[in-house]
Amino acid sequence: MNIVFISNEYPTWAPGGKGTFIQTIARELVLQEHQVTVLGIGDSSRKEVLVDQGVTCIRLRKPRTPKAKFIENFARIRLALKKMHSIKPIDIVETSELDCAYLPKNPPYKKVIRLHGGHHFFAEAEKRGIDPIKGKREIKSFKNTDAFIAVSNYVKEHTSTLLNFGNARIETINYPVDTDILVPGVTVNPAIILFAGTICEKKGVRELIDAFQMVRNAYPEKTLHLYGRDWFFPDGSSYIEMLKKEYTPEMLEGVLFKGSVLRDVLYRAYASAGLCVFPSHMETQGLVVLEALLMKRPVIFSEYGPGPETIVHGEDGMLCDVYNAQDIASKIMWMIDNPSKAQKMGDLGRTRVQEKFEKSKIVAQNISYYNKIIASKR
Length: 378
What we know:
Elements: E1 2-6, H1 17-31, E2 35-41, E3 48-52, E4 55-60, H2 69-87, E5 92-95, E6 110-115, H3 119-125, H4 132-143, E7 147-150, H5 153-160, E8 169-172, E9 189-196, H6 205-218, E10 223-227, H7 239-246, E11 255-259, H8 263-272, E12 273-277, H9 287-294, E13 299-302, H10 307-310, E14 318-320, H11 325-337, H12 339-357, H13 359-375
Parallel strand pairs: 1-2, 1-5, 2-4, 5-6, 6-7, 7-8, 9-10, 9-12, 10-11, 12-13, 13-14
Antiparallel strand pairs: 3-4
Helix pairs in contact: 6-11
């Protein structure tokens, strides 16, 4: 099978959960003797090509017409797909929610949208309006696809209340995870509370910092390590700098902004943390949660969205009200006060992630679904 993922994200070039997902599934597809290409737009004036464990990654040059960059970008994406197909026929082209809009209407390959959480999904979650251009583009994209894959039941069900899937196929297939990963020789530091994700409002960073104030009042030795890239407002201003202005230095004492790091560094950080907290207001699956559980760490996740699909509260982790700093703090302090029980949750969490999200099993589900799509008529 010849599969192309349309994405500007890939860990070698640009960090992000979607890029990590694509790298994991693409490498496993190659191991199972499929051809995989990741095609996207870069930020260089030249085309870049690299091969990552058999996965061909192509970044086309940045657009020359910024005002019409989407039109220019997708004209070049379509041309690249046409050339690739002439060399070896493509079977599947997979995109995220918005990026199927400008693909050909009746191409020789099948088009699949994977629901990672699109514009309508997050606009509703963040209580902001629909951008007219992005909104129309997403609707057009949904009409132009042959099938959908949802990364959780929650994202499938919630997206269906916002957009129409039409007659296209849809199936839930969870993220694949490299479940063999375990960082040896790491000493756990009980003082560290770890968060990973973009440093922004929708990831619950503000509530986590507020909760940490309560935790630190009771346990002054604790530190909060925030891993992830900064988020920027439309005017270019930094979310982290905004937090530093809103909170006094005393309130941010013990809060460390660690920035975006390589995956191997992040895995080691998970493994050395006393516990991990991910109070995101909205997620489609929560890849960082699975990664932390794989490191056998006690994890606190959201009681909303896909939280209950990912963690059984009180068994392999804990769920919290992400809008309530007091509730987040109480769950953190319970884990601090009950280290043995918390560690048992972490141990069971690794086992359950291995059972449910093991990559070869998940990739086999994807291949089976791809074959159904290829064999079907739209």
